[in-house]
Design a protein that fits this description.
- By secondary structure, the protein is α/β, with parallel strands linked by helices.
- 48% of the residues lie in helices and 15% in strands.
- A 6-stranded parallel β-sheet has the order 3-2-1-4-5-6, sandwiched between helices. The chain has a 4-stranded mixed β-sheet with strand order 8-7-9-10, with helices on one face.
- Strand 4, helix 4 and strand 5 form a beta-alpha-beta unit.
- The N and C termini lie far apart (58 Å).
- 45% of the residues are buried.
């Protein structure tokens, strides 16, 4: 029986993790839950899973530390959205607990720091993003030394076929209509702008210790192929499944085993799979992410921070969709060459980038 701590238990990843436990109670037990503010939902979940260990965001770092220290979990699933998910990752790894990681910002903002903490405490980091889960599995099967490149798939989002003129007029409601995935609003907008894929490129470079030039992106609207690796002999190997996050979550919970489960097996019949190159000129967030992946240091922190500020402003209908990359690009024009050696320096860079991005956003709002 594996004991699971679910961080961000009412979000998309947290809810799907609990669905796995609900359907496989002989294999998993929930021993801790954290939530932002939804006290009513947390109470319901505690009653359902018989879980005593809980934490609200208002409980702060001390409350989160107590939960991690006392819950007795074998593995934590971090489904907290945005930069708020970085601290929970750090605290879990300091405890020496394995981390099933769905929070991109942990890797994008602070990978050198986080990786060191994990190594010092003997904790494993298992990626839960469907793309990185696929790469993780494929590399384990092919052997790292045999892999020459990684190919990450992107759905293309709701605006895949939109012209530049059409992109100038899109609304928040348009951006939130993702064609294949059901996700929270921030990540759904990121998918529409290809910022999400940019973050995933940075993640892949860091998680798998590979050069940015060896990470490719291909648009695959059906979201059935989650990633591919190309081996040195030129062969491509893909991981294919329905677009259901319970697959990579389950894979992380049972790793390194491969186990049967209640999820529907994938069938190739009556399925279409098409692939296209990304339109970098119309969706510049991906190119900006590649630049940050190559420069490293605090550039990836600034990319993430500026994007969070810009997306929040777009969702609040303060700026247009095409002004998101404008804010990010102008933020990245500053010097982000400082390499943060600890979490406090990471947060300083994050704060500085947010201030610049907010200033840029305010200027755009004034126009």
């Amino acid at each position: 029986m594996k004991k699971i701590l679910v961080l961000g238990c009412t979000g998309s990843i947290g809810s799907q993790t609990l669905d796995i436990v609900r359907n496989m109670r002989d294999s998993f037990e929930v021993c801790g839950l954290s939530v932002g503010t939804n006290e009513t939902k947390l109470k319901e979940l505690c009653e359902e899973f018989g879980c005593g260990g809980t934490c609200f965001s208002r409980d702060g770092t001390e409350g989160l530390e107590r939960l991690i220290e006392n819950c007795g979990a074998d593995i934590a699933v971090n489904g907290v959205a945005g930069s708020a998910g970085l601290l929970p990752s750090v605290l879990v790894l300091k405890k020496g607990m394995d981390l099933a990681l769905a929070n991109k910002e942990t890797v994008v903002m602070a990978w050198p720091v986080v990786k060191k903490i994990a190594e010092e405490n003997g904790a494993k980091i298992i990626p839960v993003d469907s793309e990185h889960s696929a790469v993780f599995n494929l590399i384990n099967q092919a052997g790292k030394k045999n892999v020459s490149s990684i190919i990450i798939t992107a759905s293309g989002g709701p605006f895949r076929t939109f012209t530049r003129t059409e992109l100038e007029k899109v609304t928040v409601e348009d951006a939130l209509r993702h064609p294949t995935w059901k996700m929270g609003p921030k990540i759904t907008v990121d998918s529409a702008s290809l910022a999400n894929k940019g973050l995933e490129v940075i993640e892949a470079v860091r998680l798998f210790d590979i050069s940015p030039d060896s990470v490719k992106v291909v648009v695959h609207p059906q979201s059935l192929v989650h990633s591919l690796v190309q081996t040195r002999d030129g062969m491509l190997y893909a991981q294919i499944s329905d677009p259901d996050m319970r697959h990579p979550i389950f894979g992380a919970l049972v790793w390194p085993e491969i186990r049967g489960n209640y999820l529907k097996p994938f069938s190739l019949f009556d399925r279409e799979m098409t692939f296209f190159p990304p339109r970098l000129d119309d969706f510049p967030m991906l190119s900006l992410a590649y630049e940050c992946a190559k420069k490293g240091n605090s550039y990836t922190i600034a990319f993430n921070a500026a994007n969070e500020v810009a997306v929040a402003a777009f969702i609040e209908k303060r700026i247009s969709f095409l002004q998101i990359p404008k804010i990010v690009e102008e933020t990245l024009e500053h010097d982000w060459s400082m390499s943060p050696s600890d979490l406090s320096l990471v947060m300083e860079a994050d704060k500085a980038a947010r201030k610049i991005a907010v200033d840029r956003k305010n200027l755009l709002e004034g126009n």
